[in-house]
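Quick illustration, no need to memorize.
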Amino acid sequence: MPQAQGQGSGDFRETSGRIQLFHLGIRNSWGSLATDGFTQQNPPVVPNKVSSTLAGITKVGVLGSSIAFTRPDAGNGIHGGPIKILGAYVDGQRPLGLFVNDAVGNLYENTPGIGSRRGTFVNGMATVGVTLWETQQQIGVGAIAYAVGDRLYASVNGLLTNQIVDAYEYQVVADPNNVTIVGILRVVPDSNNTLMVLDMRI
């Protein structure tokens, strides 16, 4: 497996979400992106517990390496980021994969998401490295420690987490059997590796 790329100096700042595909699964562009997929704040659901991986990111809309969810509230075949409706988590909102690109794109580049109204996500058992994940508990209190072999879930904010109680699906129905395993952690991000590497399970 290729090694995750390191940024040893610590001066590298992400301005968007990024995903690196080591072993490609499926780049799924079927279906349309929900309208709020272009406008959501980051983080979208629990704004007072911001992951340190979002530091420096002011971009709105779904981000590359964040979770693509089914969005039955927006219609059949629609996907996007996580939401609450009238303060409640939405039954039927399930993780589909990881977004490949930011929905709104980057300055001076083509913006295929805006042009097509589609948000491509990767699934199908890929091995990927991501720049976004939760660094603190969303429902509980405290920092999150990751270890190789951890099961990773889709958090309430649409980022990867190993805390099952922070999983969006767990907040809908408090049942561990109701929670989708997004992937298994292979490389823990550290001072030598800026990416979290996982084998996807969806």
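The radius of gyration is 15 Å.
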